[in-house]
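Input set for joint prediction.
Command: fold jointly, output C-alpha cells.
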Amino acid sequence: MNTKELIKKYREYYKVNEMISNTLSIIGFEDETDAPKKAHKEREEILNYFYMEYFKRTTSNEYLGLLEEMKKHYDSLPPLYQRAVTLDLKDVERDRKVPEQVAKEAQKVMNQSSYYWKEAKQNDDYSIWAPYFKEVIHYSKVLAKYYGAVDNSYYNTYLDMYEEGTSEKELDIFFDKLKKRIVPLLKKVMNSKVNIRTDFLHTRVNKSQQEKLGKLTAKSIGYDFSRGMLKETEHPFTNGLTHNDVRITTHYYENDWTSNVYSCAHEGGHGIYEQNLNKKYEGTSVYGACSMAFHESQSRFFENIIAKNKNFVNYIFPKYKKIIPSTLKDVSVEEFYKAINKVQPSLIRTEADELTYCLHIIVRYEIEKLIFNNDDIDVNDLPRIWNEKYKEYLGITPPSDKEGILQDVHWSTGFGYFFSYAVGNAYSAQIYHKMKEELDVDKLLSEGKVNVIKDWLTKNIYSEARMLSPKELIKKVTGEDLNPDYYCDYLENKYSEIYELEKDE
Amino acid sequence: MNTKELIKKYREYYKVNEMISNTLSIIGFEDETDAPKKAHKEREEILNYFYMEYFKRTTSNEYLGLLEEMKKHYDSLPPLYQRAVTLDLKDVERDRKVPEQVAKEAQKVMNQSSYYWKEAKQNDDYSIWAPYFKEVIHYSKVLAKYYGAVDNSYYNTYLDMYEEGTSEKELDIFFDKLKKRIVPLLKKVMNSKVNIRTDFLHTRVNKSQQEKLGKLTAKSIGYDFSRGMLKETEHPFTNGLTHNDVRITTHYYENDWTSNVYSCAHEGGHGIYEQNLNKKYEGTSVYGACSMAFHESQSRFFENIIAKNKNFVNYIFPKYKKIIPSTLKDVSVEEFYKAINKVQPSLIRTEADELTYCLHIIVRYEIEKLIFNNDDIDVNDLPRIWNEKYKEYLGITPPSDKEGILQDVHWSTGFGYFFSYAVGNAYSAQIYHKMKEELDVDKLLSEGKVNVIKDWLTKNIYSEARMLSPKELIKKVTGEDLNPDYYCDYLENKYSEIYELEKDE
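C-alpha cells >
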C-alpha cells in the first residue's frame, strides 16, 4: 500500500472506533441523566458489550498491523498522520498487553462501581460502595502491572497516561511549591478582619431559575448551545463526542445556587475547548484535547479567572439580578463579587474557593500514592484517612462520608486524574499571564466580549488539538515550562485585594 | 447439538441482536428529542452503521443455520422456542432476499427522509421532503419485489408484515363495512341541534402545566414512570426497549392543550402493553406485541374508550382542574366530557374525534393502494390527491400541506401501517365488549381503578406476547373473528347519547 491508501484505510478503521466510542458516550450519558432507573442493568450490559467491541477493535492484529505499516512509512506521512500513528501505537501497544478476559472483568467492575458509588453517595453509606471500590483498586493495580511500571512506579503509569511525562517525583516538587506559598497565604487571609456576607448565596432558588442562570453563564463565556446541551447529573461533567455534540451537565442545589452557576462555567470551559478543536484533525486520534491537565486548565480558567473576575462580574451581575430579583434585591455587585470569592476551608472540592482548592487536590494525591505504594491497603480505612488529611490540611473534619470520601465520582472508575486540576490551575494562570501581554482582558470582560478571549485560546491552544505533548504546548504558548509561581502570584494579587492584605516586600 | 445447547446458542445470538436494536432506539430517540440539532449528520452515520450491523447479524448464514437446526428439532423444542423459530425464520428468510447494498441504500434513504420530513413539516414546505419521499416510494417497491408479492400484490407484502394474514381484499371489505355505518351516523350527528362549547380547550396552557396534565393522565391509566419517561417530539410515539425501558413522547400545542393529554393517553396505552408483556418470553422474538393493530387497539382503547369515558372523566376532571384552575374555572365536568368528544370533521388525524377517525385512515389506505398499484405515480401529485380525498370523505380541504399530507411521520419511512389504527379501533371495541361481561368497567373507572382493567388486559392479551397470531389472539380473547360491528355499535351508543339522537329500530 502507498501512503494514500494507508491513510484511507486508517481513517475508515478509525471511523468505526469513533462511532462505537460515541455510542458508549450517548448510552452512558442517558444512563446518567434521563434513562429509567430500573433499566440500568440492561444498559450496563449494552455498555459492557460495546466496550468490549471497542477494546477488540482497538487492540486487534489488524489495527496494530495497519499502524505498524504506517510507522514504516513514517517519513512520507503528513505531520498529522505522523502524530496520529505515534499516539495510537502507544495506546494499542499498551492495551494489547491486557488479556481480553481481564479487560472485560475490569470494565465490568468499573461500571458496577460507578453505579454503586452513586447509590452510596445518595444514601450517604460508604459500605454500599466499599466492596466495589476494593475491586477498582485491585483491577487498577492488575491493569498497571500489564501496562508496565514507569520508573518503578505503577502510579506513574496512570499519571503518564493522563499527562505524558508526568511522574510522582515531578508532582511531589510541584505540590511542595504550591503548599509553601498557599498555606501561609491562607493563614493571612483567615486572619484578615475583612467581613464578607454570603447570606444571599443560600436563599432558595428553584431549579428552573437555576437552569436559566447556568445557561446564561455558559453562553456568556462562549459555550455554544446549538452544538451542545445542558442536563443535570449527580456529578457535573462534560462529554465531547464530535465538533457538533459537546454536552455538559450540572447539579442543582436549591440552597446553594452559585454552585450550579460555577459548575456551568467549569463544564462550559471544558465544552469550549472541545467545541473549538481544530476540525481539520477530525477523524484521527489527533482530534482531542492536548491532555487532561490542559482540559482542566480551561475549565478552571473559565470558572475562576473569567467567571469570578471582577470585570466579568460587573458585566453579568445585572443579568443574574433579572432572573432572581428577590434573591439579589439588596445585594451590591461588590458584595456579590466578594461572596463568590470568599475564602473558607470547606469539605467539598468542587465548591472550594480558588485558594483552598489545591489543598483538596493534595489530599487526594497523597491518598492515591498511599493506595499504589501499599499492597495491603484496607478499603475500610480510607474514609478515616481521608478525614485525617482534611483535618491536617484544611483544619476541618467531614461529618459524613457523603461530604468526605464519597464526594467525587473519579475513584469509582480509577486513579491518577486529580493532579490534573492542580496542574490545570497552574497552566491556566500561566496562560492568563501570557494572554494579558496581548489582550486587554479586563476591558474585554467588562464589556462581555469573552469571544475575543475564546478566539485567542482557540488560536493558541484549541487549534493545536493533540499535535503537541503538554510539555511542548505550554512551552509554545507561554515560552516556558510549567511554573506554579504564576498561579501563586495570581492568588496573592486577587486575595490581597479582597482581604486587604499587606503585600510582602 | 442437543436442544438445550441449541437454545443456549440461540439466546446468546439473539441477545446481541437485541442490544444492537436497543442501541438504535436509544440513539434515534435522543436524535428526536435532546441531541444537538447540528449533530444530526454524525448521528445518522452511527444509525446507518448499526442498522447494517443489525442487518448483517439477522441475515447471516450463521443465524439462518442456527434457526434451521432448531427447525429440525422442532418437535422437541418447548412451545416458546417453536414459536420463536417460526417467527424468526419468516423474517430471516424474507430479509436475506435483499442484497446488502440495497438494504444499506434503503436504510439511508429512510433515515434521510425522516429527517427532511420533519424539516418540511416544520417549514410547511412539501418540496423539502418530496425528493426523499420519492425515494421512499421507490425503495419500498424495490424491497417488496425482493420480499415477494403476496397474492400478486406488493402492498399485501407490507400489510402481512404488520398483521399476519391481512390483505387488500380483506381490508376493502372491512373498510366498506365501516363506511356504511359511520358515514350515515356522522350525517345524523352533524344535523343534531346539540351545541357543544369548546372555547376552554383553546385557552393558552403553558408547557410545564401541560407536562403535568400529560403525566397525570398517563399515570392514571397505568403507565409506570419508574420504567419509562415522557419527552416531547414533533410526532408522538412509543419506544419499547425492554420491560424496564418503555418511553413515550408527546407534542405540546399551547392553544390546544387536550391534544397533549390524549396523546399521553394514546402513547401511554402503547406503553402499558409493552410494560406488561410476559417477562418469561424476554430474550426471544416471542417477546413483543402480537401485532401492530393489537398495539393500536391498546393505544386507542386507553385514549378513547378509557380516557374519554364519562366515568373516567368524572374521576379525573377535578385533578385537571387543580393543575389549570383558571382555564377550567367556569367549566362543568359535563361540558368537559362533551367538549373532548365533540364530533367535527377536521384535518389532523391524531386530533380527530372517534367518529371521524376512521375516515382519515380510509384516505391514507386508498392513497397507499394508489401508490402500490401505479408504477408511475408522481410524488408531486400526492398533496393534491390527499386534499381531494379529504374533501370527499370529510368535506374539508387542508389549507396547507402541514395540515395535509405532511402531518404524519409514517410515510417518511414506508407504507402499510395506517390500517392498523382502524383495525385497532375495531379490536378495542370488540375486546371492550368482552371485558364488560366480566368487569363492571364503569364503576371501576368512576373510582379511578384502572389497574383492574390493566390486569384483565395483561392476563388476556399482554401475557400472550407473540405466542399467537393476531387472528388467533382476537378469537381466543373474544371468542370470534375481527368484527367491526362492535366498534360501530360503540360509536352509535356513545354519540347517540351525546348528540341526543333517536336510535334506529
